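Example for reference:
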Amino acid sequence: MEEKKIMMAEILRQELLAKGVMKLVLCAPEAARAARAGQFVNVYTEDSALLLPRPISICDAEGDRLTLVYGIVGRGTQWFSKRCAGEHLRISTPLGNGYDLSDIKPGDSALLFGGGIGVPPMVKLAKTLTAMGVSVRAAAGFRDESFLLEELSAAGAQTLCATDSGREGYRGTALSAAEDVGWSGDHWFACGPKPMLAAVAKAALACGKDAQVSMEERMGCGYGACVGCTVDVKPQDAMQPVRKKVCKDGPVFLGSEVFFDER
């Protein structure tokens, strides 16, 4: 088992990508080298009133640089958004189980679905899959304003955009946009709001595939100690649901094993 560490990371750059969405680039060699698609890091504030770290998905990792994209949703992320280049943040090593790519073969095709702040992990995933010789298609859904579309394309993905408002791309969801153009794939991956994950999981099963979905439960410690981010999964050989921790057992699960309010 890899040792979990907390380290200091220098802020190289921070910029506004869209309303309430920030891109944070850190110099964090150890974390960047260890990062896998679908993992997250804990980021800590220096505010004594904000004791718990904030888990943020890894958007990209290359060389010594770790890129995080996060939404400003509370006091912790508001504090992060005020930090400038040259300052330092405490972060953890990469945590959680990312996407399982062990069955991927060169020449395979992959469908990626990202919704809102679930889009950032798709950048690292697209880059990893492309390097493995996989044909990648990525459908990104937003409420109104898009971000990271250029990064997805640069990572090697054929990209679709969908917005709830119709301001950009297709009007509707990432899944409906992909269905409209007839996209298919050997492997399905998703990250985003639970309704989107449920829809992608159902659509994948209808095509004889089992999507890998990254759950966005609210985390406390991020290490599996507080049991604050549990999700019920379908047991293989038991009558009752099995409760697993998103931060430690996930955040990635098979779509077929997660209960999406169908009980």
Observations:
- Helices lie at 29-34, 75-81, 120-131, 149-154, 174-180, 194-206.
- Residues 107 and 231 are 34 Å apart (CA to CA).
